[in-house]
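ABC transporter permease
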Amino acid sequence: MSTSVDEAALAPPLPTGAPLAPEAPRSGFARFLGSDLWASFQRSKLAMGALAVTVLLFGLAFSAPWIAPQNPYDPAQLELINSNLPPLWAADGQAPFVLGTDDQGRDVLSAVLYGLRLSLIIGLLGVAVSGTLGIALGLVAGYFGGIVDAVVMRVADVQLTFPAILIALVVDGVAKAAFGGALDTNATILLIVVSIGLSFWVQYARTVRSSVMVERGKDYVQAARLIGLSSPVIMVRHVLPNVTGPVFVIATINLALAIITEATLSFLGTGLPETMPSLGTLIRTGNRFLFSGEWWIVAFPGAALAGLVLAINLLGDWLRDALNPKLQ
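Tokens:
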């Protein structure tokens, strides 16, 4: 009768002090898949659904030139005989206008896709401007303190007394009064981006300032000073990476606010012209026909705006909770 012998017991022992093979470094994506953030995302069905809706709307928006049945910016493709047609499933609906047409004969589906793209571009650029300005001022105020901190924070306190939409309206109105009718479409978009950027920088500045005031007294900052690194290098290379967590949360939520602000400006008639349809201009156009029975002109742009903002806000709420160490 044979007895089994453990093969590991027959293996020659390793020499004492033999170096172990170094573990291969993992890529950034592999580290992310093993992080607590990814585990939190997998546990949240609501965040997964919000991300799916956000990615879908972004994909539809930026692929609009290839999938939209019509270019609503091209007057040559518009025919007034096709104006105010109901959706395809209605009795008077006509192909290829799946969601109907507006008063100018524009396909509502195409207008929503192009308008969604324009609103997203303005929102993303507005967040970039406000984030850059707020992070820079917050870094400077928190790192140097003193009179610099006092001036930046007093300006922020004054701006907080006014609603963001009011700041955007003032900036937009002053610029249009100064330049008059000399603003073309690109200049108008740039003006709206700057208006949004100047309306939302305060949240970034206050948050970054608070985090920098904690970080500037730590050993790694003192060591960087001792080896002779300049203040801008210390702030950008060493301090900034340690305060980016709250910034991502603010940027996500402010993206939704920036899109709403652009839609509000366009709805009030101070944003984009009707020849460049964003979600706000489409809602403004459809609002004039709501009580005459052409509900689809305002319903579908409004639903696209509500769905996009809701999905982004849900992502922002999840990211805020996932990055909060008190909830881990």
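The CA atoms of residues 112 and 126 lie 20 Å apart.
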